Amino acid sequence: MPPTVQLQGFHEEHGHLTEFAGFRLPLWFTGIIPESLAVREAAGIFDVSHMGRSIIKGDDSERFLQQITSNDVSTLKEGQGQYSLLCNPEGGIKDDLLVLKLRKDKYSIVYNAANRSSDYEWFKTNKEGFDVEIEDLSNESAMFAVQGPRAVPLVTEAAHDSRLAGVPRFSFDWAKIGSVPVLLSRTGYTGEDGFEVFVWDSPIDHPDNAKIVWDELLRVGKPMNSQLCGLGARDLLRLEAGLCLYGIDIDEKTTPFEARLGFVVKLQKDFIGSSKLREAKENCPTKLRVGLVTQKRVIPRHGFTITDNGREIGVVTSGTLSPIIKTGIAMGYVEEQDAKDGSLVDMRFRDRYEAAKITRPPFYDTTKYGYSRKLHQS
Hints:
Elements: H1 8-14, E1 16-20, E2 23-28, H2 32-41, E3 44-47, E4 52-57, H3 61-68, E5 81-87, E6 93-103, E7 106-111, H4 116-125, E8 133-136, E9 142-147, H5 151-159, E10 172-177, E11 180-185, E12 194-199, H6 208-221, E13 227-229, H7 231-240, H8 274-283, E14 287-294, E15 305-308, E16 311-322, E17 327-335, E18 344-349, E19 352-358, H9 373-377
Parallel strand pairs: 3-13
Antiparallel strand pairs: 1-2, 3-9, 4-7, 4-8, 5-6, 6-7, 9-12, 10-11, 11-12, 14-17, 14-19, 15-16, 15-18, 16-17, 18-19
Helix pairs in contact: 2-7, 5-6
């Protein structure tokens, strides 16, 4: 039997399912494009309970996370979170994750569904010498994401709590939705503003709390033109925003500097892989992740070769057709000397070549879309 999530029955009834990380999850409900546009223009509601969730607690929690993650956990105050990486001893990326500081000696960690078992084992393997307890809550809790320009009003109304509008990005607060206690984190992976909703007390065999929160989000969101969203929209949205998908755009053979994720690598501290990453930074990466926009309305795909005047310079890792800019977009890796914004290259589409421009993501107009649009409009 494949693993399930708390709302598996709902998804079986209402969604068009696909296999992902061993789960059978909704690829779409009404369609990938309308769901994606709803997130850009109003709000989308996602079930992301398939992702891994662990609690790390104990007197050495901060010291342990400083050793195992790339970002600087010591900068976090209670109620704050950060994007970070797990690296292997060679400096390759084992996973990307979210760290939330619940209190001085307790943290919540969120990581990718495909790595639920391996990340948890990595935590346990490396806890020797630290006074910490590690608890896998992946099957004991549910997690939803509400994303888009109307996501904050939606969640605020569902929780009957106006304070939530003032929660800063990468911070969180506690509230109740439909009488169920939830943690609301101002985070997400679509490029839009919004919250991720943690329903802690909702095991898979007793998912009542998850259902209550889900139903309330749907009820409140309906008059706001929100849409249920599946994996297809989530993938399209994160690619439009230039966000990496683990196992496709980043992996253990990729360093954070090659992936342009050096902003979450704090080399002033020692952590697993830091010595190799210091060497990598000093030597400069030989390849770099870039964004690509096609000149015609074509769809780039994973594995397409990137060339410059017939010379192979890289490969596409992710690609799709953007409904916002109405042409193909992609991410991939090219040789460092070829990673210049504005450069024209070609992508090999089986028996033909199509022109594309190297473009730094996000691929949309940030004055009209994305969480920073308010900064441009204020």
